[in-house]
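Anyone able to model this chain together with iron/sulfur cluster?
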Amino acid sequence: MGNEVLLDAGAVSRCRRRVHLEHDPVMLGVPLSPPDPAAEQRIADAAAHRAEIRNRLVQATGDGWVTVPRELPSADRSRMTEQALASGAAYIWGALLPVDREGHRRGGAELLVRTATGYVPVLVVRHRITDRGEGAPTTELTDLDPANVRPDPARRVRSQPRDQLRLAHLRRMLQTLGHAEPERALGGVIGLDADVVVWLDLDAPTWPGGRTALAEYDSRFADRLAIAQAAEAGRAALAEPSRILECRRCPWWPTCEAELTSVRDVSLVVRGEDAMELRKAGVSTVDKLAALSPSDEPPVAAWPAEVFADAIALARAWLADLSVVRKVDRVEVPRADVEVDVDMESFGDSGAYLWGCLLTGADIGLEPGYRAFATWEPLPTPDEGRSFAEFWAFLSEVRARTAAAGLTFRAYCYNAMAENRWLFGSVERFAGAEGVPARAEIQSFVDSDEWVDLFRSVADQFLCSHGKGLKVVAPVAGFQWRDPEAGGEASMRWYRAAVGMDGEAPDPAQRQRILTYNEDDVLATHALRTWMTDRAMLEVPFMGDL
Ligand code: SF4
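re: yes, here you go
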């Protein structure tokens, strides 16, 4: 029975419970979450990226390529790959390795490259794999010979554990087939920027505790294999559900949520690692956590008293079906005579295409209400510099007029990390363009009391049993978005259509949809902070009273 189990490279990075569910025959046919449209888009983008890289590589390197078409049935693909390996093809694109039944592995690589003595896998991924710095072992993009690796003077490796584990998986499969490069456990990665190939040494002690990627992979693989085999054979589960970050996008969430809720699992109110510690201490349910007293010894050694008290209050809030409780006697938000709520929309790492502003408060001779500073040219575009400069000119004018009138000013956003990233990113990328301020000007604004991160105010003053996102908290203040699909992931789809990113005509209806969504976001922060000033004290129970 155990021989039936075959794991792909992703299994070693995946939630352990998911590996169990995927191999439990009882779970066949259980309803899963519908596929996330944003994930489908990411898959399509990755395919386009791979095709572009392949063309560049083939053009630059010439002969010696065998391309295994992805459209073929798996059996044909792996047979073709096996033949290409046996014939000593220099480059095998789209390789699907023959299933390793003994080792319980299956998998493929975007590219296998022949060295003097064997094959090394090369991944083509759509995330960043380097940062500015030095020392990354690289070759030029079209140089696929790992013998030419040099320390890069302009790049350092960005840690991407999944890439390393995937390369380790492929190396183990190539070893089984007798085709692995025997000298060094190397693997290459071509990332989103597609400017170099980064070559990773899977035998280097780059993991915590001086472990190598291969050692880490081997131990995780053994663990996941045991889980999968136990599930397949109907033995006692070796992995139980526990709410973790991965759950948000996991298709098994409906199953796990029902199970966690039915046992009132403690992970419903605390982080994944903390839940593990709590279970070890016997505090496995929300009820048991809620029954503790802040004066007890914290069951999680690393918990300061305040974190412990918050966890108890969160558990009590969950039992009382309250999504928000107050941590403080008095809720406070810094306010001013003239206020601007700011929300920025970006598209991945490509840029910030929209800065939305809601002007409210005292009359300073400018029309109050919502304004959008946007570029609708597909990112990346220099026009983004123009729209950013216009946004900054507006904000600067509001500040100048407010100061001239002897009034106070504040601007608000929800989670300044995102806005700050693109404030600084924009002045760097468009330095010298008309109207783009110097970095120091941005720095002084960001450091000032005039820039208020409302997310911080919420986190400091409330406990939120269903998360602290604006979409969760603003409804408590009575705010509703007009678009029922409103959300970061959906806006990515709308943006693609709005600018005609996929080769179709730009869709004005999707532009309007984004503008409405952005306007609602700033209206939401406005509603939230006015509620915090006026009503939160009366409407939200104090944690000490639960
Ligand atoms: S929903 Fe969460 S616990 Fe369940 S399988 Fe997915 S990631 Fe694991």
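The domain at 264-321 is CATH 1.10.150 (DNA polymerase; domain 1).
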